[in-house]
Task: structure prediction
Amino acid sequence: MSTFSPDAQTSTVTPPVRADDQMPLHGIDHVELWVGNAKQAAYFFTRAYGFTEVAYAGLETGVRDRVSHVLQQGRVRLVLSGALQSDHPIAAHQHKHGDGVKVIALGVPDVDHAYKVALERGAKGLAEPYELTDERGTVRLADIATYGETVHRFVDRSKFTGEFLPGYQRIEHSDEVKTGGMLVAIDHIVGNVELGAMQQWVEYYEQVFGMTEMIHFSDEAISTEYSALMSKVVTSGDGRVKFPINEPAEGKRKSQIDEYLDFYEGAGAQHIALATRDIVDTVTKLQEHGVQFLTVPDTYYDEVPDRVPEMKEDLADLRRLGILVDHDDEGYLLQIFTKPLGDRPTIFFEIIERHGARGFGEGNFKALFEAIEREQDKRGNL
Result:
């Protein structure tokens, strides 16, 4: 575990690559969202964000209680699942939380070993290792609990040739329908937890997964006149999997984390950061598709040339689109945040392009936080 000076605002540690890693992770295999209307959500994500539906399970495939649409773009795989019966767990979850992330699945070389090690290190088991099989092969799976009602699913698909899981029907498309190319991978997934719970979950990821605390942001680093939050980032040894964990901090008014916890009714995944290779082109297309982003004052861009002199992008493009820019000792990054994806002010996307930087836009925190507070104020939640 990294050390942190209480007088410092941030602390960054380069995670060691452990040769004896007992919990190796291939990366984030998929993210499953439980939603109120999976068909409409799939339509939104394919049309607005450029995903392509690649697989489907539902009544037509013999599934009687739920429906799942599997969407893909680059290495990003989202599963949108909805209930077909009022007493289904998906219906209960969506009734309480609204649309949100239920499963963050992690690719592993050996599901049985990963599950065994996780339980030995204190994780709560939800589903012991099991197999799904069809004519395309076998996928092995197991589930453990994490913050709130979120699930980590271990996945080994090395013996499967299909698009997602056995039992799912492949969706064929012409080349014209495959509109993606904007988003390439999941950069990180942020979890929001209750006041006082952040350290507990940081230690959970350190103990269960052997992750390392990478960065610590204090409430002084992430604050405005009205509100603040605290955050720590844990990462796997090779940096493939990064999980920032946020908790609210004391302030004059409600922070964005308080608002999330109120409307999600508990801890959960706040946002998914999606990597792109050309953020200017991507955000231009997303805005044309109707995606709405948070905005910052035009004066934010006056200091960018001096603050990030190595930036290669045209400042006029960033100003026009509302893209934020920051840098660290290893390079710079560009980022922008969508407004909430659904009716509740909970889950949203971040679009990020890295040029060497390993940070999370610390220099943008104040501008971003103030942008979020303006939206909170419009909703009467500040």
